[in-house]
Amino acid sequence: MSQQRHGSTPGEADGVPAFPDLPEATIARLPEYLRALHHLAETGAETVSSEGLAAAAGVNSAKLRKDLSHLGSYGTRGVGYDVALLVDQIEYILGLDKNRAVCLVGVGNLGHALAGYAGFASRGFRVVALFDADPKKVGEDINGLAVQHIDDLQRVAAEESIAIGVIATPPGTAQSVADALVAAGVTSILNFAPGVLSVPSNVDVRKVDLAIELQILSFHEHRKASLTALPGGRVPATGNSDQEAVGS
Amino acid sequence: MSQQRHGSTPGEADGVPAFPDLPEATIARLPEYLRALHHLAETGAETVSSEGLAAAAGVNSAKLRKDLSHLGSYGTRGVGYDVALLVDQIEYILGLDKNRAVCLVGVGNLGHALAGYAGFASRGFRVVALFDADPKKVGEDINGLAVQHIDDLQRVAAEESIAIGVIATPPGTAQSVADALVAAGVTSILNFAPGVLSVPSNVDVRKVDLAIELQILSFHEHRKASLTALPGGRVPATGNSDQEAVGS
DNA sequence: AGGCGCTTGTGAAGGCGTGCACAAATCGCG
DNA sequence: CGCGATTTGTGCACGCCTTCACAAGCGCCT
Ligand SMILES: NC(=O)c1ccc[n+]([C@@H]2O[C@H](COP(=O)([O-])OP(=O)(O)OC[C@H]3O[C@@H](n4cnc5c(N)ncnc54)[C@H](O)[C@@H]3O)[C@@H](O)[C@H]2O)c1
Ligand SMILES: NC(=O)c1ccc[n+]([C@@H]2O[C@H](COP(=O)([O-])OP(=O)(O)OC[C@H]3O[C@@H](n4cnc5c(N)ncnc54)[C@H](O)[C@@H]3O)[C@@H](O)[C@H]2O)c1
């Protein structure tokens, strides 16, 4: 595989700062911490303890401290973490200071909702282009952005240097759209279409599949039902690692 | 769905069949296997090898075999797995034979798209009710289903025995909606609003947060960029556990 | 200045998940 | 009827992640 020795945090050529290689599990939690921190900042909090931030993010405080320790020592013992400083740190690590350009392919039912979603811009992303294959959709104005034809993807992507693409087309066309995105230089894809995408190894794909989420919930329903029917009527907590039962 | 013999988990009252406790990671992959199997069934395949199914689902074949072995021995050495049988098995385990009733709260931008989504019904779920707090939305007909007022949730949930609720309201109201769902007897929640929900321990919550997905992609963009700027121009593959670079 | 309480950062242990490698089992064919 | 080809099921080792527990560090109060 890819072994790559990065010197850890300290000394680095000044153009490109050091880049710690964080555990995947930590990276997946950083956005949650960031959201909690922004919320805290709005309430005027200057600092926050690991306990407090952990509660706000729905995780164990030890896990939070270990996660943050991977970024470096940005806390003060006896006091806590400086909220503003930590926000900057996490945003830097996540690369959110770049205001990344995103394009969306497939302006149907779902794509329409996504295109109008304000949560993108507020979290460091700019939707700069919408594409569809349907001539009737092309030209349509959504939230101040005109839908363009998929054939223009290549050109537009180059002009706007789009690095992230979102796929919201029917499952059957998802692979060909992914291929087009890759050909246009996109190196990160968020896919809403069910199914497996095949892409070069330097391209990252994340997938969101509602049906999968529901089916996992269904499993737990099934499990709970079969347990309550048994002697001990007590329903034990799920082994689910997600947030749950956060005592507030 | 008739009687099924699970080799494991012996001695059980016959009304409720044995229920193997599967690893969380396995459960999360079963829906993906199921989708791949349905696809195979459509192409007329009678059986499939672990290698073939693994490729279709975008996972390692050893992992797939271990996952399936947790459900019992439903394969035949030298031949493979019986597609139809495996479909039934997985659907049974996931509780999809129950055609579970789902309600959706918050018929806004996103909720509207979800309400019209055909992928629910085709995968074993029935959206039986839509709720909103906005009087202007109440009464609106979406895909043959009338939007009802959130105050009717309690009553409707009891009538339809709804076990799964989907939250698509603004973040600020998500917690109160969750409380209402729980009060109405819902024991599984799929939450699209950013933030942490607090629910009793017998309620399962899964969350879908687009911004988090994009931020994770952004991190990898940042990482890739900082690596290409360094001596070794080669960009290594991500540690991402998701599907990626599946040799077509 | 010194002590005290609080909080971070981390070493160590345990658990979970993954992937390899191979024995066991089954089928088809000569 | 036996043999080889094929594929499952799994024991095992390894690495990642989580969690505990505590020493080290910091600020405040006296
Ligand atoms: N609607 C939902 O709530 C929902 C939920 C989960 C997943 N999904 C998935 O998201 C995807 C989109 O769902 P939808 O309901 O919006 O479907 P849709 O049919 O309403 O929209 C699909 C759009 O993609 C366009 N399109 C088709 N082929 C294209 C191509 N090659 N290039 C560019 N555009 C193309 C179509 O013109 C159409 O506008 C589907 O894969 C669906 O399974 C949808
Ligand atoms: N639109 C998207 O693409 C998108 C993407 C990701 C996440 N989200 C999240 O999904 C949620 C909904 O997004 P949206 O764009 O659909 O917002 P929206 O404002 O368009 O819709 C919200 C709907 O919820 C209803 N509502 C508000 N309070 C309610 C209550 N107490 N009970 C019942 N209904 C209530 C409102 O009347 C409105 O119809 C938000 O939390 C958003 O952050 C949206």
From TrEMBL, chains A, B:
Entry binding sites for NAD(+): G106, V107, G108, N109, L110, G111
Annotated localization: Cytoplasm
DNA-binding region in chain numbering: 32-71
Database matches in InterPro entries: CoA-bd, NAD(P)-bd_dom_sf, Rex_actinobacterial-type, Rex_DNA-bd_C_dom, Tscrpt_rep_Rex, WH-like_DNA-bd_sf, WH_DNA-bd_sf
Gene3D superfamilies in the cross-refs: NAD(P)-binding Rossmann-like Domain, Winged helix-like DNA-binding domain superfamily/Winged helix DNA-binding domain
GO MF assignments: DNA binding; DNA-binding transcription factor activity
Residue ranges of domain CoA-binding in the record: 95-196
Oxidoreductase as UniProt keyword: no
Keywords for this protein: Cytoplasm, DNA-binding, NAD, Repressor, Transcription, Transcription regulation
Pfam families the record matches: CoA_binding, Put_DNA-bind_N
Top-level division of the source organism's lineage: Bacteria
Protein's UniProt keywords contain DNA repair: no
GO biological-process terms attached to the record: negative regulation of DNA-templated transcription; response to redox state
Family annotation (SUPFAM superfamilies): NAD(P)-binding Rossmann-fold domains (SSF51735), Winged helix' DNA-binding domain (SSF46785)
GO CC field: cytoplasm
UniProt family annotation: Belongs to the transcriptional regulatory Rex family.
Subunit and interaction comment: Homodimer.
UniProt xrefs under HAMAP family: Rex
Function: Modulates transcription in response to changes in cellular NADH/NAD(+) redox state.
Name recorded for this polypeptide: Redox-sensing transcriptional repressor Rex
Organism the protein comes from: Actinoplanes utahensis
